[in-house]
Amino acid sequence: MSCSTVRRCFLAITILAIVLSLAPAQFLKKASNRTNVALIGHIGAIGALPNYDKILDLSRRELLEDGTLGDDFDIEIISRNGCGEAFEGVAAAADLYHIEHVTTFLGPYCNGGKCSETLPVATMANFWNIPIIAYMATSNALSNKKIYKTLIRTSLRTINTIAESTAAFIKHYKWKKVSLVSNVGAAAFEKLTALEPVLKRHGVVVTRKILFDETATVQDMLSSGQLDEIRYNSRVVVVMFSSTRDLTATFRQATAKYGMTEAEYVFIFPWLQENANGASPFVGSDSESLTKVKQTYSNCILIDDMNGFDDRMITPFVERLNSIGLDEKDIDLMNIYGYIALFDALKMFATAGRKVLNQTGNITSVGDGKLMWNAMRRMTIQGKSPSLLNQLLSGS
């Protein structure tokens, strides 16, 4: 994240804290009058995860059926939209806490690039000591538990995990030199700054770092002279564009026209979905996926930490959606990962909440951020994400 973005984040926090601390008392009314309820503030994004509310309802219904939720412990959810250029999610978080009196945050949905709302919201959650469950978060900065003491991630994917996977693959084939290709921008910069030290630790030298403009065309790449930098300095090329505007297909067309064939060069594409953009190229119908992969990634290497997001998991999940009247056309199938992460995030919170409630006998303990964090990081749940347990045990 750039310094200017960080300053904007914390300026937003400061302004909101000052303004909302002056809010009249008559506005501080709880959204729920029930005494057995944990009130969750969900911060989503306009246009992201259509019918997400029904996914949350499905998760809650299953929690009621298995006894995790009941007469002594239930959940209510208030949703707000964020993920805009003006850090609307930060304002939404302040509103949810001060006006609606939520005791937990779910989200924000966005977390990287121009829309890094998770960082300031997690900082506020730590100050207020309430749990925050980030179901789409990938930023390495969030692993700092000195700052984000009440945050749990269920995303399974982080920039660091994909960097470690990429470095391990390169080391396995005993390649010693690589070029890095990315684009200008905060999200891309964070990926590169995570990857470079991992490569160095594995004894891999970065010979060139090539950055293209976010609006670059095939012709721009050809005429920039930067492809020559790659050609004369390495045969292994690691390509990590941001998901703000994926330039992968553009780059592949440019290298093909420039005569950089797969027989001479190894192209490695580490894949990390951050928001709605940047979905894995393997997501979609079989024919669509096969055609896209063949056209863009023929004879290339894709490193995708999908963690088992295949038909064995997706098909049963879609069948569950059918039980509440949803089918594939009612959701964004390209972002099925987001739905499953959201489903599991609510289930994880409720399971931890039940554990804490049983220990303390006090429903307000479910809103104790540090207490809930300790409960969640050592917890086993049967979620839809096959390796969710590993992420929770890491306490990240």
Describe this structure in words.
Helix content is about 45%, strand content about 15%. The protein has about 400 residues and is α/β, with parallel strands linked by helices. The protein has two domains: about 5-155 and about 315-395, Rossmann fold, CATH 3.40.50.2300; about 160-305, Rossmann fold, CATH 3.40.50. A five-stranded parallel sheet has the order 2-1-3-4-5, with helices on both faces. Strands 7-6-8-9-10 form a five-stranded parallel sheet. Strand 8, helix 9 and strand 9 form a beta-alpha-beta unit. The radius of gyration is 22 Å and the shape is elongated. The two termini are about 20 Å apart. The relative contact order is 0.14. This is ANF_receptor domain-containing protein. InterPro entries: ANF_lig-bd_rcpt, ANP_Clearance_Receptor, Peripla_BP_I. Pfam families: ANF_receptor.
What's the gist of this structure?
By secondary structure, this protein is α/β, with parallel strands linked by helices. The protein has 14 helices and ten strands.
In terms of topology, how is this protein built?
Elements: H1 3-21, E1 37-45, H2 52-65, E2 74-82, H3 88-98, E3 104-106, H4 118-128, E4 132-134, E5 151-153, H5 159-172, E6 177-183, H6 186-201, E7 205-212, H7 218-223, H8 226-231, E8 236-239, H9 248-257, E9 266-271, H10 286-297, E10 301-304, H11 311-322, H12 336-360, H13 369-377, H14 388-393
Parallel strand pairs: 1-2, 1-3, 3-4, 4-5, 6-7, 6-8, 8-9, 9-10
Notable characteristics:
396 residues; alpha/beta; Rossmann fold; five-stranded parallel β-sheet; 14 helices; disordered C terminus; peptide hormone binding; transmembrane
